[in-house]
Amino acid sequence: MILDIKDIKDLFSYRSIDANKYDFGVVGIMGGSTSFSGALKLASMSASSLRSGAGLVRVILEENLKDAIMPYILEQTLHVLNDDLDIALQKLDVLAVGMGWGQDTSRHEYLEYILNNYSKKLILDADALNILAKNLNLLNNTKAQIILTPHLQEFARLLNISAEKIQKNCEQYAEYFARKHNVILLLKGHTTIVTDGKITYLVESGSPGMATAGSGDVLSGIIAGFLGYNAYNPLSVAAAAYLAGLAGTLATKKYTDIAAIASDQIEFIPEAIKIIRGEHEKN
């Protein structure tokens, strides 16, 4: 079904005056590499996961990236890995992995450890998807609540078939994969497909201005932040995708489809939330 703004309004409810940060989830963001540390900066910025509502955000990265990331750490906390991934994962309600990560041996080991030991909401994006495509058996025994966020080429690698074949029936392939592997799949596109194989939402928010480097990383940050305080189900993931797309559309209106960049999308998350809540209708 095509997602309507009315379907998700209740997920953006107003917060109690008694609320504290622990009511809205602890989110971990794990990614970055020497070549692509900028992806982690975008996904972990407070204006991505925190602007989307998470109570706390923990950036998890290796020692050699610390200096590159430190200037961008504002409201987040930082965990520098030192053979203590189990400690890094403690008390996390959501973990997003793979943005700008690379695919060397250590990344394979990290991903396998996470899938074997982490049991809460887990978003796999970018290089985490490419590693997973080489060994889908990693999904067989995990207790984590998995959300996969591929674009078409990444999904083609996961299915090991051509993108052209998938394009002929994206929805059917997405539902098949999600059902077979017991995951929620978010297939990015002009119309984003979100499905667990039983329930499917088509998300049509978004604009050409989002076709720029870093937009996928921002989306992962938004999903992670939103799932910090919402249930693991297709509607919550679709709502986060709608929020990201609406913020991107608002950014494009201001900066144009040519000049808009990913960080502009983050700027408009608050305005997008107001629209979803219907606050503009009250004015």
Structural summary, described in words:
The protein is globular. Helix 7 (127-133) runs parallel beside helix 8 (152-159) and helix 12 packs across helix 14. Helix 4 (66-69) links the parallel strand 2 and strand 3. By secondary structure, the chain is α/β, with parallel strands linked by helices. Strands 3-2-1-4-5-6-7-8-9 form a nine-stranded mixed beta sheet, with helices on both faces. The chain has helices at residues 5-8, 37-44, 46-50, 66-69, 85-88, 105-117, 127-133, 152-159, 163-167, 170-181, 215-227, 234-259, 262-267, 269-277, 279-282, and strands spanning 26-30, 56-61, 77-80, 94-97, 121-124, 145-148, 184-187, 192-195, 200-203. The mean pLDDT is 91. It has a single domain (17-275), classed as Ribokinase (UDP-N-acetylmuramoyl-L-alanine:D-glutamate ligase, 3-Layer(aba) Sandwich).
Could you name the key traits of this structure?
single chain, alpha/beta, UDP-N-acetylmuramoyl-L-alanine:D-glutamate ligase, 15 helices
Summed up:
The chain is about 45% helix and about 15% strand. By secondary structure, it is of the alpha/beta class.
How is the secondary structure organized here?
Blueprint: H1 5-8, E1 26-30, H2 37-44, H3 46-50, E2 56-61, H4 66-69, E3 77-80, H5 85-88, E4 94-97, H6 105-117, E5 121-124, H7 127-133, E6 145-148, H8 152-159, H9 163-167, H10 170-181, E7 184-187, E8 192-195, E9 200-203, H11 215-227, H12 234-259, H13 262-267, H14 269-277, H15 279-282
Parallel strand pairs: 1-2, 1-4, 2-3, 4-5, 5-6, 6-7
Antiparallel strand pairs: 7-8, 8-9
Helix pairs in contact: 2-11, 7-8, 11-12, 12-14
